[in-house]
């Protein structure tokens, strides 16, 4: 770990705990900063705050004192989920106090280089695929970021011969200043998270911070099939590595209906790829290009693509039972992600959907609802989703209150050859703490229903 004189014996405020805030606070304390943590959760319910207090960190819990920033802080590190409209963040910016997310801290203390992956959809699958490719080629990758492992905690122990393969959200990237990945990947850009960013321009600008510090020694892999993303790419200083699904190209990575190509040469027959769905082909191209640029071998890439079946909760194949294939796509927390899932299957889908009501439009699903033979819906959006499906001509619509009932109803509306797909198009927080718990509930319900009928 590199020493960081920028924080040594300086007053640093960490705003918001959870995993990233806790890790950043502990690390800053270790680096010699005078750390104060401010978290909304009461101290008696806050084990992270209790542990930090035992380390000697100043802890303020249960409230956000308006005068806290009068104490002379020289840096604020915020939990990425806290929006920039937060009064404490706005006050810090007005005072000229730098505001980071822990990704910036991770970069500054890391001995290892970074590969950064972002995008509206597909970043977790791309990150996981790339990690497997580099790992099997013994490139000593570490995996970090929005995928679940806090980047600064990984960077603390990384060595110079490692590479940190990092999934990054727009929330995390917006709080970076010097972060420079040697390879940057943007899988795609669609309108998302406007409740946080306010405008599509701010959302896209936050994503593009991934490349802002890159130089001609670095690489930027991007989706050339999106004209607005290709236009952004032309402003970057890195070497450009476009990918396209529109046929073979001679100088980058591409795909047609039969093959994936690297620099115009066949890399793999698409029929050998285990990971299904047109949307996953974007992820495959991005990951394969990054692996090859980092010195990976074509043989290893082919081996991984011939065996990798998906990331848990992201179009994850669960089981084939009586000719019905069950898929867990609980990570689909918006209509765009569910649209991608529906695109991946040709038809005969029994869809399980619904969740937290954010009043997001469902209209982008309409062109694909003809693939849905029945809908089972739940959560706050159940009535609105049901009305939408009926308006789209879906013949069978069922409303249920829990996941086991949802799977039971889905099976009752299914036949041999059908796909039973959990792809909620909504966040989980009305019924579940997170999408992972929702996905696990689906897997457990599938197990109960299928084992009971054997």
TrEMBL record:
InterPro entries: Mur-like_cat_sf, Mur_ligase_C, Mur_ligase_C_dom_sf, Mur_ligase_cen, MurD. One of its GO terms (molecular function) is UDP-N-acetylmuramoylalanine-D-glutamate ligase activity. It catalyses: UDP-N-acetyl-alpha-D-muramoyl-L-alanine + D-glutamate + ATP = UDP-N-acetyl-alpha-D-muramoyl-L-alanyl-D-glutamate + ADP + phosphate + H(+). The keyword Cell division applies. GO terms for biological process: cell division; cell wall organization; peptidoglycan biosynthetic process; regulation of cell shape. Residues 313-426 form the Mur ligase C-terminal domain. Cell wall formation. Catalyzes the addition of glutamate to the nucleotide precursor UDP-N-acetylmuramoyl-L-alanine (UMA). This is UDP-N-acetylmuramoylalanine--D-glutamate ligase. It comes from Planococcus halotolerans. The lineage of its organism: Bacteria, Bacillati, Bacillota, Bacilli, Bacillales. The gene is murD.
